[in-house]
Amino acid sequence: MPTALRRSRPRHGDIAVDTATRLLVDLRQAPDSVRDLPRGRASGRYSCLACGRALELCGPRDHTDFTARFRHTRHEIDRCPASPGQLARVRGAVADARALAERLIAAAPGVRIQVAVTATAEPEVMPVLALQLEAPSGAGVIHLPHGELSDEQADRILAVRDTARRQWVLFDRHDGAHYRAAGQVQVRTRRQDQRIDKITPTSGQRRLAQAQVAVAWRDDGTLLLPFGGHPITYPPRAGEDWSGSAASWQRDWKISQPRPADGAAWWGLLPLPLRALAAPALLGAAVTAMADLEAAQSGREAYRRGKARERYAQTQTWRAPARPQQLALPLPADTAVSPNRSISAADQARQVATQTPAAVAPAPDLELAAQESRPLPWQRWRRLLAWLRRH
User: Fold this and answer.
1) 186 neighbors 161 (Cβ within 8 angstroms)
2) Cys-Cys crosslink for 267: which of 148, 226, 249, 368, Cβ 3.0 to 4.6 Å?
C-alpha cells in the first residue's frame, strides 16, 4: 500500500499530546514532527487525546513502508478504549481548532499559532484544546472548550494561566452546552436601534469571568463579547409620578463591563469581527461600544424621569380646586359708580355688609308693632305719678 494512502487513513495513534510542551502532535498534519521527539514511552511523556492514557511513540524508521505512530500497548491489539463517538468528536474538535488558527493567521499574517491542549480528556469528557498565539503585539492563549466544561477542566484553565499572556476562553455559539439563550434586549446608541442577544451564563462561565479571564463566544466569523445586565428600579424623586402606565418604565437595567460583574442577571453579547482575537487594536471598538451602552442607559433614565415629571405636573393640574366666583351685588342709587370712577374692594365689601340685612329681612308686621308699642296698665300709672310730682 502506498505511503501517502497509509497516512491518510484515520487511525487511533495519529494524535497525541506532548505533556512536556502541552502541544498537540498530529502525525496526519506533520508526519516529520516526531523526528526531534524521543521514541518509546519517554517516561510517560505522550498521552492519548481521546482517552488520556499514556502512549508509546513508535518510529520513525528508515524503511519507506513504515509510518511513525503512537501506540496504546505493544503486546495486545492496539485499540483506544474511548467510544467511537468520542473519537469522532475529538477529531472534529482538532479540525475545528486548526480551521480557526488558519482564519486568524489569514487575518493577521504576522501571527504564529500552535495548537496545544489545556486539559486532557477524561472518560467521555472532551479535552480542552488551545491556540497559542505569538504576535508582535504580544502573546495570548485561546482556550477552546468542546461540550460541557467540567469543574476539573475549569480548574486546569485557571491553573495554567500566565499573566504575561492574554487569556481567552472561547465558547461555541452553536453548542447547547455553552449557549443558553435568554431573549434579546433593545438599545439605542448613536441614534440607532440595536438588538443584542442575551444568555444565561453557566456557573463555570461565571467563575471564569470572575477570575479575570476573558470569556467570549464565536459564531462563524463573529466574536461575541459579554457584558453584565443588572435589573434596577429607579427610586422616585420629588416631583415624579411613576403610577399607572409609567410603572413599567421605572424598571430598567444597567451594564457592567468590560467583563460581567458578579450578580448579573443575564449577559449580553456584543458582536465584533473574529479577527479581533489576533488584532488587539480591534478590541478598542469593544471599549467604545460598551461605553455607548452605558451612555444609553443614562439617557434612558433621564428620558423616563422627564416623563414621570410630566405625569406629576398633569395630575396636579387635574386636582387643583376651582376658584370661587365673587358675588356682584347692585349698588344703591346714591352710591352708583360713574363710568370714570372705580370703587375699591373694601368699600364694596362695606356696602355689601350694610345692604345684605335689608335685602334679606322679611317685611315688618304693622299690627304686631302697634301692639308691642302700646303701654301696659301699670306702666300708665307709673307715668301718671311721675307727671304729678313734676307739677
Assistant:
1) no
2) 226
Cα separation of 129 and 123, whole Å?
A: 16
What pLDDT, on the 0 to 100 scale, is given for residue 359? 43
Tens-place pLDDT, residues 187-232: 998 888 999 999 999 999 999 998 878 999 999 899 999 999 999 9
Q: Do the bridges between strand 23-26 and strand 166-172 make them parallel or antiparallel, or are there none, so unpaired? A: unpaired
Helices marked H in the chain — which ranges? 3-8, 84-107, 151-159, 203-210, 283-319, 345-360, 366-373, 377-390
pTM of the model: 0.73
pLDDT for residue 153 is more than 50: yes
How far, in Å, CA of 369 to CA of 365, rounded?
6
Alpha-carbon gap, residue 299 to 183, rounded angstroms = 23
pLDDT digits (tens, 9 = 90+) for 100-142: 999 999 988 888 999 999 987 676 788 999 999 998 778 899 9
**Cα–Cα nearest to 14, from 61, 75, 59:** 59
The grid coordinates listed for 36 are 526531534
Q: What is the distance between the alpha carbons of residues 283 and 295, in angstroms, rounded to a whole number?
A: 19
String of DSSP letters for 17-44: EETTTTEEEETTT-GGGGGGSPPB-TTT
Answer yes or no: is pLDDT of 337 > 50. no
